[in-house]
């Protein structure tokens, strides 16, 4: 187990982040766009939001998340593009392959960032900052991306350092200086602190990571749960022993929540099942991924836990999907098969795994029309939520949750705030 | 029960019945064959509870000394008959044990009580049609291959069997491609069939009737039955609704091509060499007088193949799984095949002159 006093090996972790990723992809594909403001998210007249913009566009206030029409007003001369996840995925793999020249320990955490553990490579390639400089040059020359890098003794510090290295720089936090570096920063900079945790901490007037680090561990555990509390306690002190595990991208996306009090109300449980799928599927869509496997788990009020095989079920889908309306039928069947005891439920969760790139798929003879309807509906809902917040539309079985759960702009306020994205 | 019979004939019968009998039955009795004497003949019965067969053994050397029935593991008895070389063998069934007496070797095979053997339905006598075995075999060969292999979509796990008037149609689809084979048959009683038969059952029927000239077909009580001179094969039907396949077969499309079948097969096979498991997709580019095939897979390479053909319509690119295209082409007949489609996202149709239609859904072009 993690313990502050027992960190023996000084690790060298590099966090690599590709600047303005999707927009840079377009510049790599079409070098005539270099130096010009490029906005990825849709054509000029499209509805939707800016997914990525080059620094040339950011200078004029066009940041990711902005509505496209607003971006067009601010910067009419910008190049507006839809973006291409297939190409993006290929180029990002090429950049990360360069990282693999310096260490086998490369963990790809999204399309545009990864962690490297170069502790064992320093004899061969010199100190981490030299490795970083070489990667910077090679990625720039061979792929055409500009990357920002943070170097530190663990993942948390490296990741936070990257923020200060942007755009296109390298920032190193020397061993033993992690806590000092983090202390003055606002708590939302700390990986694992989402909007909900931030808000909760603000209520206690905890604004900086340094202030967070002075809260007793037991209090954090009581407020945020054992695992989350422990994470906050250590990370705020600049301590993070999570290893860099080689792998490509997320392997699964899961969402779960507990019922407090436990419930046997079928409508509410189904509503929650749909809502959790909505959240998990939206996360996949944002990454341009589809899932091949769907899992559902439950926990009864009287235990045994959701890790018990009887309380968990997985199924391979006939066709990969990232849309809740396609997933729900199967999820409901699985849930019905699981929920057999006449005992109230304490927890329900869903997981999407077997992730692969979306699109390019074999079309189906009989379900294509329905699929394209579902795709349009989902895209429409995503669009509206992108502009007016999640709350703007409550659809499908989620309406069962209206009036039962509080809502904010990000959706329903659930009982289990999740620290992981 | 006590009889002697030709080794070769019995082995042949066991092999036919054995193709139905399950190798991993829920109970040992389901892995067994029932042998009974009836009208001076031996009848063999076997089933995997989905498909069942009765097979009458024609054997001039058969002598039944004592009538009765016996049940023994089918594979074991067949293995014994394969090893020994006697022409005629004596069999005695006593106290659930079958004695097999050959020259120099004697076997006692433990069996099961015949009462426990599942009852195998007889061929129904009403609403039957008769057709040449070859016609039936060909219908099956041109439809069953396209049925779904995975168990995900239940109704697609079988072959639609439809008889209306004199049109007998068999349709197989896994949702990505669809094979539709049709034949005109004589149907004097106006029998009507609309059922989904399990792919395994229908393939077995086709195999068992091989060599026969005419067969009878009938559907009754949720079972499809075929009868030849020597055998009755009964298959349980798949429950469920078959999709409305007529609706996805395109008609009168704006884009039409005519190919030489062999040339197209050869071109698709070449292009397929440069695909891999992740990207099983070949791009078909249609232009006037010319079809170019293009395959490209990351870390594999790319292939460009072109052939001449006649094409009507706007130049268009559409991608297909080459395996699906080849499977369809390989059961087509005649020198040329016609091809038509509306758009790169809608179903495309292959037809030959032999009352066969094959529809393939394209892959989204990346």
Topology:
The complex is a heterodimer of chains A (about 425) and B (about 375).
Chain A (H helix, E strand, L loop, with lengths): L12 E6 L2 H9 L8 E3 L11 E2 L1 H4 L9 H7 L4 E3 L3 H15 L6 E3 L4 E5 L4 H4 L2 H15 L4 E6 L2 H11 L4 E3 L5 H5 L12 H9 L5 H5 L3 H8 L1 H11 L15 E12 L2 H22 L1 E12 L11 E10 L2 H15 L6 E13 L10 H21 L18 E2 L2 E2 L9
Parallel strand pairs in A: 2-4, 7-8
Antiparallel strand pairs in A: 1-6, 1-7, 2-3, 5-6, 9-12, 10-11, 10-12, 13-14
Helix pairs in contact in A: 4-6, 11-12, 13-14
Chain B lengths: L1 E5 H12 L13 E7 L2 E7 L3 E7 L5 E4 L2 E5 H10 L4 E7 L2 E5 L4 E5 L17 E5 H9 L16 E7 L2 E7 L3 E8 L8 E6 H10 L5 E7 L2 E5 L3 E6 L18 E6 H12 L9 E6 L2 E8 L3 E8 L1 E3 L3 E5 L1 H9 L5 E6 L6 E4 L4 E5 L6
Antiparallel strand pairs in B: 1-5, 1-7, 2-3, 2-6, 3-4, 4-17, 7-8, 8-9, 10-15, 11-12, 11-14, 12-13, 13-26, 15-16, 16-17, 18-22, 18-24, 19-20, 19-23, 20-21, 24-25, 25-26
Helix pairs in contact in B: 1-2, 3-4, 5-6
Describe this structure in words.
By secondary structure, chain A is α+β, with helices and mostly antiparallel strands. Chain A has four domains: 82 residues, Alpha-Beta Plaits, CATH 3.30.70.270; 65 residues, MutS, DNA mismatch repair protein, domain I, CATH 3.40.1170; 57 residues, 5' to 3' exonuclease, C-terminal subdomain (DNA polymerase, domain 1), CATH 1.10.150.20; 161 residues, Dna Ligase, domain 1. The N terminus and C terminus of chain A are likely disordered. Chain B is α+β, with helices and mostly antiparallel strands. Helix content of chain B is 17%, strand content 42%. In chain B, helix 1 packs antiparallel against helix 2, helix 3 runs antiparallel to helix 4 and helix 5 packs antiparallel against helix 6. The interface between A and B is medium-sized, with 13 and 23 residues.
């Amino acid at each position: 187990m993690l313990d502050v006093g027992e960190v023996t090996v000084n690790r060298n972790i590099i966090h690599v982040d590709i600047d303005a990723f999707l927009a840079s992809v377009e510049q790599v594909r079409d070098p005539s766009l270099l130096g010009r403001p490029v906005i990825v998210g849709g054509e000029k007249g499209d509805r939707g939001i800016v997914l990525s913009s080059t620094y040339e566009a950011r200078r004029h206030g066009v940041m990711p998340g902005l509505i496209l029409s607003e971006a067009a007003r601010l910067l009419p001369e910008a190049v507006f593009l839809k973006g291409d996840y297939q190409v993006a995925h290929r180029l990002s793999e090429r950049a990360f392959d360069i990282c693999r020249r310096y260490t086998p320990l490369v963990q790809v955490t999204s399309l545009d960032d990864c962690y490297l553990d170069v502790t064992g490579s320093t004899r061969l390639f010199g100190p981490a900052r030299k490795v970083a400089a070489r990667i910077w040059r090679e990625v720039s020359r061979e792929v055409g991306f500009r990357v920002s890098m943070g170097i530190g003794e663990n993942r948390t510090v490296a990741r936070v350092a990257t923020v200060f290295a942007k755009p296109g720089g390298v920032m190193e936090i020397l061993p033993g200086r992690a806590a000092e570096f983090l202390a003055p920063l606002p708590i939302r900079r700390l990986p694992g602190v989402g909007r909900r945790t931030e808000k909760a901490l603000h209520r206690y007037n905890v604004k900086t990571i340094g202030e967070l680090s002075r809260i007793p561990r037991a209090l954090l555990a009581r407020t945020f749960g054992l695992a989350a509390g422990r994470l906050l306690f250590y990370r705020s002190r600049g301590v993070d022993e999570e290893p860099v595990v080689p792998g490509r991208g997320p392997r699964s996306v899961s969402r779960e929540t507990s019922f407090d009090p436990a419930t046997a109300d079928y409508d509410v449980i189904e509503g929650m099942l749909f809502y959790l799928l909505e959240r998990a599927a939206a996360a996949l869509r944002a990454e341009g991924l589809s899932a091949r496997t769907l899992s559902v788990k439950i926990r009864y009020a009287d235990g045994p836990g959701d890790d018990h095989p009887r309380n968990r079920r997985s199924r391979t889908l006939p066709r990969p999907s990232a849309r809740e309306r396609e997933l729900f039928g199967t999820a409901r069947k699985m849930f019905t098969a699981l929920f057999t005891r006449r005992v109230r439920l304490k927890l329900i969760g869903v997981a999407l795994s077997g992730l692969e790139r979306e699109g390019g798929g074999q079309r189906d003879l009989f379900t294509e029309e329905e699929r394209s309807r579902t795709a349009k509906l989902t895209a429409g809902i995503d669009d509206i939520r992108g502009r007016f917040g999640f709350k703007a539309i409550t659809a499908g079985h989620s309406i069962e949750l209206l009036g039962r759960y509080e809502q904010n702009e990000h959706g329903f306020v659930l009982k289990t705030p999740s620290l992981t994205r | 029960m006590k009889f002697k019979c030709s080794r070769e004939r019995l082995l042949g019968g066991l092999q036919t019945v054995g193709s139905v009998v399950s190798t991993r039955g829920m109970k040992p009795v389901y892995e067994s064959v029932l042998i009974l004497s009836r009208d001076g003949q031996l009848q063999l019965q076997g089933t995997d509870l989905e498909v069942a067969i009765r097979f009458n053994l024609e054997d001039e050397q058969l002598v039944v000394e004592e009538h009765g029935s016996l049940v023994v593991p089918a594979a074991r008895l067949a293995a014994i008959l394969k090893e020994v070389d006697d022409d005629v063998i004596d069999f005695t069934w006593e106290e659930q044990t079958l004695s097999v007496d050959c020259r120099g070797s004697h076997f006692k095979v433990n069996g099961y009580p015949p009462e426990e053997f599942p009852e195998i339905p007889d061929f129904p006598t009403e609403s039957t049609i008769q057709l040449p075995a070859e016609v039936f075999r060909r219908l099956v060969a041109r439809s069953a291959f396209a049925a779904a292999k995975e168990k995900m979509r239940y109704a697609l796990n079988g072959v639609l069997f439809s008889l209306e008037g004199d049109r007998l149609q068999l349709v197989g689809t896994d949702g990505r491609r669809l094979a539709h084979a049709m034949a005109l048959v004589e149907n004097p009683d106006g029998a009507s069939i609309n059922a989904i038969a399990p792919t395994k059952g229908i393939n077995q029927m086709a195999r068992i009737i091989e060599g026969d000239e005419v067969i009878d077909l009938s559907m009754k009580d949720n079972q499809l039955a075929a009868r030849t001179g020597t055998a009755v094969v009964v298959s349980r039907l798949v429950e469920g609704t078959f999709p409305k396949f007529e609706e996805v077969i395109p008609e009168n499309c704006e884009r039409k091509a005519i190919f030489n079948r062999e040339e197209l097969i050869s071109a698709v096979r070449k292009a397929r060499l440069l695909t891999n498991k992740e990207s099983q997709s070949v791009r078909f580019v249609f232009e006037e007088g010319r079809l170019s095939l293009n395959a490209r897979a990351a870390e594999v390479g790319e292939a460009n193949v072109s052939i001449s053909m006649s094409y009507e319509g706007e130049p268009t690119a559409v991608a297909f799984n080459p395996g699906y295209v080849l499977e369809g082409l390989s059961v087509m007949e005649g020198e040329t095949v016609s091809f038509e489609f509306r758009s790169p996202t809608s179903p495309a149709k292959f037809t030959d002159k032999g009352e066969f239609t094959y529809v393939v859904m394209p892959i989204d072009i990346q």
